[in-house]
């Protein structure tokens, strides 16, 4: 959260070098409008310095920038972007710019991204701990990718952190978070039992994060990353069920749906999120992020600030870091998913005969339109199996037929679909359709599931193409 006086002062200093009508001027005006909507600073906002900034103060331009971000005096989101083509790895040009190597990193947004501040999770035996369960796949992939770039000087800690900020911005609506490199790897495992418990009460979680300089509002902002998550081990009978109905989009749907007793059936609310949403110190901020008009920009601003803080915990050479935000892909500020109708059906309880298979497709960033599903071994007619009922593990039996009329969406996006069918799920009058070649073929009398319309926004870096939808960072 920022003071409006700071916004205006910094904006005026910038506009001296810009003229009306130029791209820079328009960008500045947009920035003034966005930041001017931010609420006045609250006692629940994080405002402490970290590492060497706390002991010796800012002694470099990067140190001053980081200090201003941590104190809410500078924006944690940046639009500065590199336009030149990257130099080849190992070339003189690459060696002269610390950020060139990082620009070469593969930039995709799927479940293959996660956090960490000193690289120890992949440099020690931390990965084997129970609270890191589920990271084995991404750990193996990260180590494989890191082996390619390690000879060019990047630390494991920086590799993980840049991967996380890249993954955030290539998710639709995700912010371009200021990103810094120069961390030193730690060969010693972190102390155990310091990670948040999904069943913990809100007071315990608030204290845990305050001990890390993250105050109550910062905690509310950070848990918003659950908007892109799909749990696997909290409830194994509902593996891959999401924490909101749009796990492929960096939106604020998680906040209102956590509060909504009639949220889409497949949304699995984590107990810790529910408790935080209702706590006296965090409830107001939770509702502010849930606001359909101002919540997205408010959350992106606060999340970016808190993530910069989180990414620098335990870093004691902040003054010596280099900012590499310029290599991040451009933000995707508008997105109309072409597979929205099928994702809505899934979120409201459809595709239950597939067990967690449809969720696996979502987690892998697969595009799930009626045209692409058959290529992935899924028949669109299976959408209606169990529609409107609470998921309860992999069901059995043939898929049911479609109900009359298309389903509704989820709260805030069209009418609510049926919560149940009075006489059980509808079926085909003459039994289930035949399955030639292992895939159902609907007859002319049987209306297929509603077709997906709309397209993916064109242009901009970081957009997946082909059979991939925009994915999500796995930040849990």
From TrEMBL:
Positions that bind heme b: 226
Cofactor note: Binds 2 calcium ions per subunit. Binds 1 heme b (iron(II)-protoporphyrin IX) group per subunit.
Location of the region described as Disordered in the Swiss-Prot/TrEMBL record: 378-476
Gene Ontology molecular functions: heme binding; metal ion binding; peroxidase activity
GO BP, sorted A to Z: cellular response to oxidative stress; hydrogen peroxide catabolic process; response to reactive oxygen species
Enzyme class: oxidoreductase
Name assigned to this protein: Peroxidase
Organism: Venturia inaequalis
Source organism phylogeny: Eukaryota, Fungi, Dikarya, Ascomycota, Pezizomycotina
